[in-house]
Amino acid sequence: MPTTAPAFSDATASDSALRRFLHGLPGVDAVGLEARAASLGTRSIKTTAKAYAIDLAISMIDLTTLEGADTPGKVRALAAKAVHPDPTDRTTPRTAAVCVYPDMAATAVAALAGSGVKVASVATAFPAGRAALDVKLADVRDAVAAGADEIDMVIDRGAFLSGRYLKVYEEILAVKAQCARADGTDARLKVIFETGELSTYDNIRRASWLGMLAGADFIKTSTGKVATNATPANTLLMLEAVRDFRAQTGVQIGVKPAGGIRTSKDAVKFLVLVNETAGEDWLDNHWFRFGASSLLNDLLMQRQKLSTGRYSGPDYVTVD
Amino acid sequence: MSDNRLSVFKTYKLYVGGKFPRSESGRVYEVTDSKGKWLANAPQSSRKDARDAVVAARKAFGGWSGATAYNRGQILYRVAEMLEGRKDQFVREVADAEGLSKSKAAAVVDAAIDRWVWYAGWTDKIGQVVGGANPVAGPFFNLSTPEPTGVVTVLAPQESSFLGLVSVIAPVIATGNTAVVIASADSPLPALSLGEVLATSDLPGGVVNILSGKTSEIATPLASHQDVNAIDLTGADAALAKELEIAAADNLKRVLRPPVSRHHPEKGAQSAAPSSAVDSDGTADWTADPGTHRLTAFLETKTVWHPTGALGVSGSSY
Q1: Which stretches make up the Aldehyde dehydrogenase domain (chain B) (predicted)?
Q2: What ipTM was predicted for this assembly?
Q3: Domain range for A25
Q4: Which residues in chain B touch residue A312, judged by CB atoms under 8 angstroms apart?
Q5: In this structure, is the dihedral angle defined by the CA atoms of residues B274, B277, B279 and B283, taken in order, positive or negative?
Q6: Does a structural domain hold residue A320?
């Protein structure tokens, strides 16, 4: 059973203690945060640094398909793309993972066997998370049993926004317990806050700490299913949270912005944020991921431009 | 009106994706009239502006090529209406750019507007002229229909800053292509003003994108761009045209070669089309009847075979 980092065991003793702890976190200077994120976005990354950033970004992608229309064939096609993103250039790195719904996890596992590309499965009644706890846990159990390496869960935003932090905390603990496999290892747990529904930066900071206290391996911005998804500002805020958490507990936690990151330029801006906020330790696909689908094609087109000198076009990457 | 009123200079900007951005590079260059007097600063586009323009043109292609020919004709006619309303401005800009008298410039602008109307009329007629039903030796309907090539890079003529410009843009978009236009390097102002007209004429953003600057600097990345389907080299000199044609071969772009240059007739590429009319001094004569070759230069023919049924059994007389 995962336990809270000892430094904060008092904070999770009761609902009121948890609320006191979360509301005791320093308030976020929204203007300063956005200005900092914007100024880091102006860094010029060119030539070899750009080539490195593009390859790093490709290797950090959780290539995602979360549609009602997903079929086993589509998942297999996506898996093939994750293994060989650009079939014309085998030096292209593989993506970190393929992210699917739980019922497609087994298909993805079979398609990716031996490739080193992980299978992430969303669970807990994604994307709304509006289901009974038993249903959510069964969802997670199914995904883990199907062989998913990583579980992307959504928090109960209704409980969070109404101040029932301990309920959210205990739910994450319960999901974390379901991530255990028979052989004693754990699927890595990504906790999605759906920052677009949390309304304030203060709430995002509180959710980040709540998730980390509950034993999340990754904190993730959003589902990609609402109007506002990952932004430089909310990702910067979460990067600060994981940096501070490691400084205080020694435990490193990953960050995954998801949704709305479509261009190479955006991806490189996020990498600058990671490097300047959390530090180089996070510049690795074990600690930082992009939840994206169309981003990969843009990165591949940029990569082709760098290697051939010609601007590429959407006819030269796969349609997905 | 007071005499010491401050002058209000116009900031000319690019026209890309229905918006008026400055050059991404932040550069501008001085535009002078035919006598060397400073007129205005024009944005000096970089290859990134060219790339952005291609993205905008590609995005607009689906909607524009999918619009009915009739609708395209209406929109192009609307452009002509807007041009008519801003005639005075174009007369002034053309007179400055080409060193023409006011009356000669007015004649050029009239001809340009008439040319636009003429091409507007062609949108729903070109299909019948170059497509049709083909007789084949079998029980099939066999129909050929022209379809737009895609994103077309257009190097507008260097000398004829407005009539020539209209004569190369209108046929490209009339048939459903979208265009990235490189304006005349020395006289870009009429082209940049045309952008303002297009923005207010129901023409969807991105169908025409207008860039000003050094022709070779903008054209080179466009010629090798994998997402550009065709290039019209009208505004290129012989040496540049050759270089661009080589770059364009890489993704099998359609190439429309420039008219034979007066300066280097021996080096000039042969005009592939049945020639735009060429003046006695060797430059293109934009006042001549343009014919349909610019309309057909950027069309692809799709042919469909459709079985008519078991001819022998039914006794049909198809």
Answers
A1: 24-255
A2: 0.83
A3: 11-309
A4: 226-227
A5: negative
A6: no
